[in-house]
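An example makes the point: we print one protein in full, the chain in one-letter code, the fold tokenised, without further comment:
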Amino acid sequence: MSRISEATAIAHPNIALAKYWGKKPIPGNYPAVPSLSVTLDGMMTRTVVRFDSSLEVDRVVLNGTEAAQSDRAHLRVVELLDRVRALAGDTRRAFVQSANDFPTASGLASSASGFAALALAAVRAIPGLDASLEQVSDLARQSSASAARSLFDGFVELEPERPARSIAPPEHIDLHILVCVVTEEKKSIGSTSGMQTTALLSPYFDSWLSTAPVIFSSMKEALAARDWEALGELSEKSALAMHACAMAGGIVYVRGISLDLFAAVRGLRASGILAYFTADAGPHVKVLVRDGDVARATDVLSKVPGVLRVLDTRPGKGATVIASSPEATT
């Protein structure tokens, strides 16, 4: 007879407006600098975790394909499951099924939503494991630092060696984030590898470590004051500083299309439409606009050669459990 329990969770990617890039040289996967992000409604990861005492190994299905036991993606999932099992004193193996409705491993924060959904589903799938949202966030952070933020609503801060926390609700400020998708391909350099190389080789890394916290503090003030222009200006400043630091170490995520989109955003501003860009570890560009400017900005951005589509997203809710089954014996 086997003991089975399961839960299904959804989580959304988050986009850092004040970036973190680099890890502290201590155990725990802590970011080197603070970040301020916004959880996005409009893109989603859905993850099912089923613990089953009849399983001999963990099985992981990602976007419809079962990962081999030796795949890095499989190993990262198992590492998180092991932390949950250790916390609960439960030795059962699990079947995990997870899918994104947006490009994966391409610079759109799929690891953030993926590990946030996985951590929440895994914890809630074990009866009697009464972990707080902060504890779930901590479990997720150890797999992907940005995943700690996707557990929470709206605007979220994550400081080194401190829990992530929401600092403003989704409706705090009039904001749309237009996600300009420019490829369906996975990026060739993962974020963790890119951060490690940047820290080792970039002559600007020390400057980044001192500059990023200043941008973060200024952005918190701008957000609290609902200073839309300052928020946008600081978002661009953070993104450009991060990418300059990475490129100086030989890590290049942006492409020609990314630069064309930067120019298109500046063109929007020159025409009187407030729009600001940001970009993460990938070629896609995210554009901050206000509600009344969405249609015009989308029209301009979608016509930039190489743009596949423009997704209209807004600040949204954190990860949630949408289904759970109590333990049963079969």
Remarks:
- The mean pLDDT is 94.
- The first helix runs from residue 72 to 88.
